[in-house]
Amino acid sequence: MQTATSKVFHKTRSQITRILHSTKLFRSKSVPSVTTLKAATRNLSYTTDVSSAKCISGVRYYCTMPPTKGLYQHVCMGGTFDRMHEGHFLLLREGCRLCEGTLTVGVTDLSMIQSKILCELIAPVEVRIENVRQFLRETKPTMEANVVPISDPLGPAGWNPDIQAIVVSTETKKGADFVNDTRKKKGLSELAVHIIDLVPEPSPTSSEESKVSSSNLRQRLLGTLLRPVQPKPDIRAHPYVLGLTGGIASGKTAVARRLQGLGAAVVDCDKLGHKAYEPGTTAHGQVVQTFGQDVLAEDGTINRKVLGPKVFADKDKLQALNNIVWPEIARLAKEEIAAHAEAGKSVVVLDAAVLLEAGWENFCHEIWVSVIPRKEAIRRIVERNKFTEEDAGRRIDSQMSNQERVDRGNVIISTLWEPEVTQKQVEKAWSLLQERIQQGAEKGASQL
Fold first, then answer.
1. Phi and psi at residue 371, to the nearest 5°
2. How many angstroms separate the CA atoms of 20 and 9, rounded?
C-alpha cells in the first residue's frame, strides 16, 4: 500500500523534478547554490531541504533531500543501477527518507541483465554496487546500507521477514505485487509499497525511451571511444587501419559500407577468404591434402558446401582449416592495405568477422565492434539464411560472444534500430576518429 504521507511527498517530488528540469538545474556542469535551488522550489507546500549530490561519471546531479526521519526499520528496493542517473537518485533518496534502520538494495547480477538493451555495456556488478554504496553513504551516513547482488527478481524481499517496505517506480509496481504474493504464500507479512514516478527524458531521440534511463545513456556511448587507443609503434601510422568485427547478422558489413561512404577504403576479409585457397595457391593444396579430394569441385576449386560440414562439426578440423587459411588472408589483407595507402586513402577498414580470433588486430590501430542482441541476430539469420532458430542459435554459439568482442573493442556500433540511427552512430564515430587522427598527427609533428 502507498501511505498518505508518501502520496503527498510523491506528488511534490514530481513537481520539484519538473521545476529543476525546466530551470536546467537538475543536471549541470556548474554548481548552483542551495539558496538558488530552494528559490526554485519555494512555492511548494511540502517542506524539503535541497542539496547537491556528488559528481558521478563526470556529471553533477541535484536532487531534493526529503525529511530524514524514517518510517520503517528496514526498507528494500532493487534495480540494475547502471550509470547512475536522476531516476536512481530519486529512488534511493525515497529509501533514505523512509528508512531509520537498514536499507537493503538488490543490484541485478549477470543472469538478470541479458535481456536489457546493450547489456554488453552495463558496468560490472561490483562497480554498480560500489556506486550505490557511495551515494547512500553521502546521502544518509547514519543509515545501515546493505547493497547486495541479486540473481532473481525477488532478492532479499522474497525471504527476509524483517523487511517492512519496498520502494519501486511506477514501471516496476508489478514487481512489488509479485514480491507480496510470494511473501504471502510463505507466511510472511506484506510489504508497504512506496511508488515514485519515472523521470521524463527532456529530449529523447527516436530510438530512446521517454524516461531517463540507463539504456538511453548506454545508447549515447555508441560511436564514442570507450577504451583508449593503445599506441602500436610496430605498424605504420598511414593509413590508419580500423579493424571492424562483429557476430553473424550483426550488420558489420553494412557499417563498413557506411564508412566507405564517408571516405574510408574497405578490405573485405570474407572475399579474401575465397581468394586465399584458389587453385594454384599453397593454401589450396594444403586444404586438399588435409581434408581430402572430395572437397574439390569439378572446376578444381574448393567446394565450400562440402568443406563446411566437415569443419563446423569438428572444432579440431575447423582449427586446422583456420591455421591454413588465416595467415594467407592476413597476407592478402596487408597487400590491399598497402595498395590503398598508395592510392592516397588515409583510413582503411579491415572488415573481418574473425578479426580477434585470428589475431589480425595486431595490424590495426583500433578495433570497432558491431553488436545486436542474440534474439535479433536469430531473427535475421532465420529470415536471411532460411535456417531454423535452433541452427541459427548454434551458429551464434560457435562464435566469439558479443561480450568478448566488446571487452576488446575501442568503439561500439549497434544496427538494432532504424538505418538512420545507425548512420548517425557511424557519422559520430567517424567525426571523433578524424579528431583522434589529427591529434596524433599534431603530436607526432611536435616530436620531430
1. -130, 150
2. 16
Nearest to 82 by CA among 114, 113, 58: 113
pLDDT at 425: 97
**With contact defined as beta carbons under 8 Å apart, do 202 and 11 qualify?**
no
Q: What is d(CA 343, CA 228) in angstroms, rounded to the nearest whole number?
A: 29
Closest-CA residue to 179 (of 146, 153, 148): 153
Return the C-alpha cell found at 258.
Answer: 557506411
> Is 138:46 a contact under the CB 8 Å cutoff?
no
- Does residue 426 register a pLDDT over 80? yes
- The strand pair at 59-65 and 49-56 is best described as antiparallel
What is the separation, in whole angstroms, between the first and last Cα of the chain?
71
Measured CA distances, 44 to 14, 18, 70 (Å): 11, 12, 21
CA distance 408 to 415: 19
pLDDT at residue 329 greater than cutoff 80: yes
**Which grid cell is 281?**
595457391
CA distances in angstroms from 292 to 68, 273, 285, 297, 350, listed in the order given: 78, 19, 10, 12, 32
* Of the candidates 233, 181, 219, the residue with the CA atom closest to the CA atom of residue 414: 219
Give the contacts of 60 (CB within 8 A, at least 6 positions apart).
27, 28, 29, 31, 52, 53, 54
Is pTM beyond 0.85? Reply is no
Asked if 93 and 65 count as a contact pair (C-beta separation under 8 A), the reply is yes
Instruction: Give the Å distances, CA to CA, from 434 to 347, 352, 385, 446.
Output: 9, 22, 36, 18
Q: Give the strand pairing for 27-28 and 59-65.
A: antiparallel
Cα of 257 vs its chain's centroid, Å: 23
Task: Give the pLDDT of residue 85.
Answer: 92
Burial of 398 (0-12, 13-18, 19+ CB in 10 A): exposed
Which residues contact residue 146 at a Cβ distance below 8 angstroms, ignoring those fewer than 6 apart? 102, 103, 104, 105, 156
Q: Which residues contact 36 (CB under 8 A, 6 or more apart)?
A: 25
Q: Classify burial at 191, counting beta carbons within 10 Å of its beta carbon; exposed 0-12, middle 13-18, buried 19 or more.
A: buried
Q: Look up cell 549530490; give the residue.
A: 53
Residue pair 277/283 in contact by the 8 Å Cβ criterion: yes
At 148-174, the pLDDT tens digits run: 999 999 999 999 999 999 999 999 999
Taking alpha carbons only, the member of 65, 59, 69, 9 closest to residue 37 is 65
| Sign of the torsion formed by the C-alpha atoms of 102, 108, 110 and 111 | positive
